Amino acid sequence: MTLDFYSMAMGATMFARVSFYPTLFYNVLMEKFTRRNWYDRIDDNVILGALPFRSQANELIQKENMKAVISMNEDYELTVFSNNLTKWQLLGVEFLQLATTDIFESPCQEKLHKGVEFINKFLPRDNRIKGLSTTDSPENVGTVYVHCKAGRTRSATLKNGWTPEQAVEHMRHCRPHIWLHTQQWEALREFYKNHIDSKQS
């Protein structure tokens, strides 16, 4: 059983790697020739989007007041076209990587918690989730760009504070092509139950 699980995990990882560039190119074409946007603003402080190309960085900083980036990508996905921690820091942008294998995985609960804490410190104090390590951080209001490769699945799992149904309904209104599988729904519901609903009860 352990060997079967290892084989499945290796197969998923290899498939994600092999399909990365073809599917990235497909997403570029969809943005060019359909009504899909490369990124969409979800609220005053969060943008949900596809892999931010290096050529887009200054525009995002200046036009969207982007102060931070959360990447759900693995290292190899950031190598050629996007920025890693060092390159974002050179631009004065805070960066959090929550690497999650494309297609087959959703972020674990620890990663979701880290992501929500990270977003929390860029919200106005009155809008922050209480009881997190960043609740009392110095105010630094700005936009957090949350992304994976296409901005449809991995990154769509991360949204502050709402019930899963409310969050997904709102995100679909802003970004209609998001696509959550069963494991993403399960991750959202578990996170909400353990970290949001329990504090409101």
Automatic annotation (TrEMBL):
> Cellular component per GO?
cytoplasm; membrane
Keywords assigned: Hydrolase, Lipid biosynthesis, Lipid metabolism, Membrane, Phospholipid biosynthesis, Phospholipid metabolism, Protein phosphatase
| Catalytic activity reported | 1,2-dioctanoyl-sn-glycero-3-phospho-(1D-myo-inositol-5-phosphate) + H2O = 1,2-dioctanoyl-sn-glycero-3-phospho-(1D-myo-inositol) + phosphate; 1,2-dibutyryl-sn-glycero-3-phospho-(1D-myo-inositol-5-phosphate) + H2O = 1,2-dibutyryl-sn-glycero-3-phospho-(1D-myo-inositol) + phosphate; a 1-acyl-2-hexanoyl-sn-glycero-3-phospho-(1D-myo-inositol-5-phosphate) + H2O = a 1-acyl-2-hexanoyl-sn-glycero-3-phospho-(1D-myo-inositol) + phosphate; 1,2-di-(9Z-octadecenoyl)-sn-glycero-3-phospho-(1'-sn-glycerol-3'-phosphate) + H2O = 1,2-di-(9Z-octadecenoyl)-sn-glycero-3-phospho-(1'-sn-glycerol) + phosphate
Its annotated pathway?
Phospholipid metabolism; phosphatidylglycerol biosynthesis; phosphatidylglycerol from CDP-diacylglycerol: step 2/2; Lipid metabolism
Q: Which InterPro entries match?
A: Prot-tyrosine_phosphatase-like, PTPMT1, PTPMT1-like, Tyr_Pase_AS, TYR_PHOSPHATASE_DUAL_dom
Enzyme Commission code(s) on record: 3.1.3.27
Q: Is the keyword Hydrolase in the record? A: yes
Where does the record say this protein resides?
A: Membrane
Q: What is any one GO biological process for this UniProt entry?
A: phospholipid biosynthetic process
Give start and end of each Tyrosine-protein phosphatase domain: 51-194
Write down the top EC class of this protein. hydrolase
What GO molecular functions are on record for this protein?
phosphatidylglycerophosphatase activity; phosphatidylinositol-4,5-bisphosphate 5-phosphatase activity; phosphoprotein phosphatase activity
Xref: PANTHER family:
PHOSPHATIDYLGLYCEROPHOSPHATASE AND PROTEIN-TYROSINE PHOSPHATASE 1
Name of the protein in question: Phosphatidylglycerophosphatase and protein-tyrosine phosphatase 1
What lineage does the source organism belong to? Answer: Eukaryota, Metazoa, Ecdysozoa, Arthropoda, Hexapoda
